[in-house]
Amino acid sequence: MNTKSQIGRLLSCLKGYRLSTVLCPLFLVGEVVLEIIIPYQMSQMVNLISTLEGNIITADIIWQIVRMGLMMIMYSVISLTCGAVSAYFASKAGVGFATNIRREIFDKVQSFSFANIDAFSTSSLITRCTTDIVNVQNSFIQILRTCTRSPLMFILAVIMSFKVGANVAWIFLLVIPILLVIGVVVLKKAFPLFQRMLGSYDELNSSVQENLIGIRVVKSFVREDYEYDKFNVKASNVMDLSIKAERVMIILMPAMQFLMYVCRVGIVGIGGTAVMGGTLLIGSMTAMLTFAIQILNSLLMLTMVSVVYITSKASIGRICEVLDTANDMPDGDIDTPIQDGSVVFENVSFAYNGDNSNPVLTDINLTINGGETVGIIGGTGEGKSSLVQLIPRLYEVSSGSVKVGGIDVRNYTMHNLRESVAMVLQKNVLFSGTIMDNLRWGNPNATFEQIQDACERAQADSFIRSFPDGYNTVLGQGGVNVSGGQKQRICIARALLKNPRILILDDSTSAVDMNTDRKIREAFMNTLPNTTKIIIAQRIASVMNADKIIVLDEGKVVSVGTHEQLLATNHIYQEVYYSQTQEVAV
Amino acid sequence: MRNMFRGGGRQMQGYVNKPKHTKATFARILSYLKPFKVKLIIVTLFIIITAGANIAGTYMLEPIVDNALQVVNPSCDTYAYFAKMLMLMSVIYIIGSICNYIYQLLMLNISNGILRNIRFELFKNMERLPIEYFDKRTHGEIMSTYVNDVGSMRELVARALPSFIQSGCMIVGFFIAMIALNWMLLIICIVQTVANILTIKFIGTKSRVNYKKQQKALAMVNSQIEEIMEGQKVVKVFNHEARAREQFEVVNNQLRECGTKANVYATVLMPIMGNLAHIFYAIIVTLGVLMLYNATNGLFYMGPLYVSISIGGLVTFLEFSRRFSMPITNLSQQFNSIFHALAGAERVFTLLDEKAEVDDGSVTLVNADYVGDSLVESDTRTGIWAWRIREKDNSIKYVKVEGDVVIENVTFAYEKDKTVLDNISLYAFKGQKIALVGSTGAGKTTITNLLTRFYDISQGTITVDGIDIKDIAKSDLRRSLAMVLQDTHLFTGTVMENIRYGRLSATDEQCINAAKLANADFFISHLPLGYNTMLTADGDNLSQGQRQLLNIARAAVADPPILILDEATSSIDTRTEKLIEKGTDKLMQGRTVFLIAHRLSTVRNADAILVMEQGKNIERGNHQSLLAQRGKYYELYTEKAELD
Fold first, then answer.
1. In terms of Cα–Cα distance, which of A403, A405, A387 is closest to A349?
2. To which H or E segment does residue B186 belong?
3. What are the C-alpha distances in Å from A518 to residues A17, A509, A565, B566, B640?
4. A83, A94, A223: residue with CB nearest B501
5. Nearest residue in chain B measured CA to CA from A581
6. CB neighbours of B113 closer than 8 A, spacing ≥ 6?
7. pLDDT mean by block of 10 residues, chain A; 586 residues
8. pLDDT of residue A56
9. pLDDT tens track for B229-268
10. Across B98-102, B339-343, B633-637, least confident range
11. B218 touches chain A (CB under 8 A)
């Protein structure tokens, strides 16, 4: 996608601020026009006096001068108002624009599938939503103002200068192309140099970052000096490249000033000759000096703004990348609540990112009846988590189909399906807020009794109560102030509050001791007879009493059966079982 | 990549913008300018010339207009004078432009040089800081010093200072020129200056207040974004999208309100200042023209207005007055960036002033060899190491490095009153494998922190080969041991360079042998470029297990008598763990090994297992005897107790 259409795409986020976006340049037009008229007015006043013949003193002339002066003050006041109002609209539009983009990205990410999220990393999503948007906002405001102001100022000043003194104004036609050429050449030359400089700067920073993260390694291998030498090379490199890049850039200002001087000398020289020859008035010549400044400045501003644009281009690209990512999972349309918690896998194969040469699951056929308790056993990386994540349609099957309640999961609305399937993820997260807030994720309308009941079943109630603030204990971001086992139990309670048809625990009691683990399982049996319970575990004890146990190996179902059956027939199961029980007997 | 350092809102909140010791900080910044003294004097001189040329060139308008342009019937002399003045003007301008370019060029070299020197110093000092410093701060905090604070110092040196000098020169120059032209009109300019300053102050204050509010709102938005993005998968599992959106909408709108205000104040300043200047310009034009009229007529009296001006004077004055407010606005804006930079500089200096690790040990580690029965120092790597001890009578004694570690009655706390280790004693001798077991926070890792002297003990003693580690130079102590940590830190560079990190003098062959020993050779040879494969800092191109194997190879090439494996396999799946264990088993042979483990399966065959709880050593024995004790170890092993 090219930049042009990306910008077009982004501009749709101006919704609600289009009026401000239009009003800002409109008022700016007012400001610029008046800014050009003011020196013109000055020239008229000076000309008036310089052409007075003889000693005619009249109150008339004084009155005329005062009136012209008052007009000029009035222009300035109007110009000030226009400028201020335009600045207001620019800010309103810019900030509103950023707010809309931020909302849109946020919404977009909310609509993403797991696969979409995996494709971007979390940290890159955060950057896009924070730094990149601030960049875009700032450049939008600058560009909106400068791109109206500078071209307009340029055109009007050129026109006026020809109107006031055509016999002098041609000097601008000489100087402007030179300035433009210098500007373009400098930017063209400087841009790649700056890229290189920024690259070396990144390298420098990541070298510091690396040292911060690995400081124990550095110190334990006594590599401080070695790292310092490495850093020295990089810092010197940054210096050399900065000097190289900036050396090109600094030509711009003196060159601009020099050309301004050329204009001044030209105006005074040619204009002065014309004044002496009587073809130009002194006031007009003075006005020309002002127009010269306005013309050259507006060109300089345009050069600057092109730099702003170039730097924000990368941000625009990154933002659009998110906005243009389509959710790769079309929603289904069955909205009637799921009653039957049966799960069927039919010839299911699955690979991440559609990478079919690297399948995680192959040819899975399974039938789990509603209300059953099912255990899944297998080594890490054998596809256990992938298997259960297909049930609430967190990922899409590559082939085959997964059915819940007899209907393919793709036919349910995502919302409906996930309302009925509760899943405690292996990598679980608590959010900042109180324990109560976190539990309410499961059911925003839950009463305190319901919450307490869920916590009792998840064996979380007693430890929560032991906190001084009980259920109102504030958790830090990521749930930092509870232990791993406690966190897992809160997460289970949170899932229970959904009152799901299907409950999936993905290795969710690994940090919970055996006793508590058993109590949780017992509570499930007693209080959730109709809910299908799927439990992934490392410990045999956690799944021993399940109605059936599925053994996964290398992405395939090796065996399905009860504990006794598997213990008698399946050697993988035997191996795992004995490795966990053998030595306890000592 | 760059963005990761700018970071989220949470870091920004701590960003205070007021320097505390303005004077001292400023003086210290000046000290960095010292090496460039001569250049700086030249720069200042050239700035003055640049500003002077600008003003002089403008001032020449007056004689040109009055003595040439306004002459009614210009003669040849008039034209000659006019030409001469134009030439002079051109010369002045050319000199000004050249000086302008030269000073910028010089300044470029100076500021980049200063910047590099500061970075050198910062990094050098940082590498010498005790581990405690890094443990107490987030990486973002320290990074922000490198990125933001050094950056704002750069702004100060490269832009604010020269522009300060230039604006100052300009103001003085304008003032002198205008006083020479017409004092009456100058008064108006002074009134304008006052009005400007008041406006800047008023809007500036509003702007700062609102900017702060905006930053706060931004921080809130950013932290919410971070939290929701990080927990995005949970959000989906719980159908929480709509509610997350609702919450976000609130803070996002808050930010919009604060942001609009802050931005309005920031953008409105320029048009207000610019047009304020126009108002005064209008006043000056009117008065000036009246004075001119007065002068040509000489008849009209108007009290104090009886001040005359020539037409050249008026034109010149108008030129000055148009530009008079620019350096003032400039100066006022520079003030802001100077304060900003001073605050940044202060943080840079705070880091520079952090005390480096104290190292008062005198015992060093040397290569040694046997001549007969006695140990002598050797210049080459012999594979035998000795501690070189200078006795009180100045004689030198050599003690062979075996790696016998004795920890006796050690008590330690990171913070006062929060004892982490409570009267711990343990012994480990050459070839022994000592395992430390216990839940998080029991103090296992603390022991390794003490062995390496990342932290110093408050009570008790630790000896290596009978020598108190306090007497051993830190760098030599650390050279005698190697650590393999849970977090696998690799550095940007090739696989080979990363392995060689263990011993810089190792040959390629030695590195490859170490990789073979660590079971890493197999996967390395399957990498596209083998040992020359480039790794990035976070090494995305390797799996966690592979990274750990490289870490082990790195430790292997260091070939130290003491080895510490701190949760080396905790974040790795069981299959890879087996592979790594094979690698470490070979590495452990003949060394004193400290093994800190989470999974008890990895410690089963240790010579001694220490079970720790809340800083105390509650059980000690080998696997069999501990199981027989039916104590904590038994509970942990049978998973009757929570281990997290």
1. A387
2. helix B183-230
3. 59, 10, 22, 31, 11
4. A223
5. B638
6. A239, B35, B36
7. 78 90 94 94 88 67 89 94 94 94 90 83 80 89 92 95 90 90 88 87 84 84 88 91 89 90 94 90 92 91 84 87 85 88 93 79 92 84 84 91 93 90 83 88 90 92 88 73 81 92 87 80 88 87 88 88 90 77 45
8. 59
9. 888 888 888 888 888 888 899 999 999 999 999 989 988 8
10. B633-637
11. yes
Share the mean pLDDT of chain B: 84
Nearest one of B557, B472, B293, A217 to B285, comparing CA atoms: B293
Q: Do A208 and B123 touch (CB under 8 A)?
A: yes
3-state secondary structure of B554: helix
A470, two tokens: 């009980």
Q: Give yes or no for residue B524 having a pLDDT over 60.
A: yes
Place of tokens 């599925």: A550
pLDDT digits (tens, 9 = 90+) for A287-296: 999 999 999 9
- The arithmetic mean of pLDDT across residues B296-303, rounded, is 53
User: In the numeric block, which tokens belong to residue A573?
Assistant: 């199961």
Rounded to whole angstroms, the Cα distance separating B5 from A206 reads 9
**Is A374 in contact with A535 (CB distance < 8 Å)?**
yes
Query: What tokens appear for A380 in the block?
Result: 């890490």
Q: Does B326 touch chain A (CB under 8 A)?
A: no
Q: Do A45 and B244 touch (CB under 8 A)?
A: no
Using a CB-CB cut-off of 8 Å, the residues of chain B touching A111 are: 241
Q: How many CB atoms lie within 10 A of CB B400?
A: 13
Smallest CA-to-CA distance from A46 within A270, A288, A274, A263 is with A288
B641 and A484 within 8 Å at the Cβ level: the answer is: no
Query: Beta strand pairing status for A556-561 and A502-506?
Result: unpaired
Instruction: Please tell me the distance from the alpha carbon of residue A5 to that of residue A135, in angstroms, as a whole number.
Output: 19
- Cβ within 8 Å, pair A217-B483: yes
Rg, chain A, Cα only: 37
Alpha helices in B469-573, H assignment, sequence order? 474-479, 495-500, 508-517, 521-525, 544-558
Contacts of B293 in chain A (CB under 8 A): 49, 52, 61-62, 65
CB-CB: which of B131, B278, B481 is closest to A215?
B131
The answer, as to whether pTM is greater than 0.80, is: no
pLDDT for B639: 61
pLDDT at B642 over 80: no
Q: Which residue out of B79, B92, B97, B311 would a mutagenesis test of the A interface target, given it has the greatest number of A Cβ atoms within 10 Å?
A: B97
- Whether residues A423 and B276 touch (CB distance < 8 A) is answered with no
Contact A87 B119 (CB under 8 A): no
More confident residue, B592 or A118: B592
Tell which of B60, B69, B300 to mutate to test the A interface (max A CBs under 10 Å). B69
The partner residue sitting opposite B134, judged by closest CB among A127, A215, A258, is A215
Q: What is the model's pLDDT at position A456?
A: 93
Name which of B112, B244, B322 is nearest A110 (Cβ-Cβ).
Answer: B244
Which chain A residues are within 8 Å of B127, Cβ to Cβ? 211, 218, 224, 227-228
Whether B202 has its CB under 8 Å from any CB of chain A: the answer is no
Residues of A in contact with B281 (CB under 8 A): 38, 42, 72, 76
For Cα atoms B519, B524, B526, give the angle at the middle one, nearest 5 degrees. 115
Report the C-alpha gap between A361 and A363 in whole angstroms.
Answer: 7
Which amino acid does the sequence have at A123?
S
Residue of B nearest to A73 (CA): B279
User: What is the chain B residue with the closest CA to A80?
Assistant: B275
Residue B362 token pair:
């005198």
3-class secondary structure for B209-267?
HHHHHHHHHHHHHHHHHHHHHHCHHHHHHCCCHHHHHHHHHHHHHHHHHHHHHHHHHHH
Q: Do A429 and B311 touch (CB under 8 A)?
A: no
Hey, which residues does B81 pair with through a beta bridge?
A: none
